[in-house]
Amino acid sequence: MAIVSLDDQKAHMRVDFNDDDAQIQAQIDGAQAHLEQLLGYTIEEEFEVVPTDLVQAVMQLAANWYENREATSGDVPGVLPLGIGTLFASGGTTRSDGSEPRPCAPHEGARRHP
């Protein structure tokens, strides 16, 4: 299940029409799966209450993918939006009980992001 609802994502992106709902939902699902791959765990299994920074990371990544659906020559491939890179640079987040989640372990074949 996605940690970000379609309605919340559309509000975040200021999308007030329904034509792209399937595309936006797919980007939400893909963004969460991508972050979980980078983190090395399933977000909803790690946290009783999902931390706001992870919700924001999914929203930022899904919005970035929505706005940049086509490959462009000026973009640097493999670079995460600033807020998401900062989350990983800081070592991630903590559980609602204050304990640390399992350490991030890169999956085999996963690309490292700056």
UniProtKB/TrEMBL annotation:
It comes from Mesorhizobium neociceri. It holds the Pfam family Phage_connect_1. The lineage of its organism: Bacteria, Pseudomonadati, Pseudomonadota, Alphaproteobacteria, Hyphomicrobiales. Residues 90-114 are annotated as: Disordered. This is Phage gp6-like head-tail connector protein. InterPro entries: Phage_gp6-like_head-tail (IPR021146), Phage_HK97_gp6-like (IPR006450). It comes from the Bacteria.
